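Reviewers of the previous submission asked for a worked example of the structure-prediction workflow described in the proposal, so we include one complete record here. The input consisted solely of the amino acid sequence. No template or homolog information was supplied to the procedure at any stage.
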Amino acid sequence: EAALAGSDIATVPYAVFRKMLSHPLTDAGNKKFREDWEKRSK
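From that input alone, the workflow returned the following structure tokens.
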């Protein structure tokens, strides 16, 4: 709810943060970012 309301920051337990780093959607987002970064005009 906080993210949908426009929150800029979140306080989460370390264990939750670690799980977010290895989440499939995080991996997909990182992959898409890297692909787009390589396509950028230089």
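DSSP finds two helices and no strands in the chain. We consider this example representative of the routine output the project will generate in years two and three.
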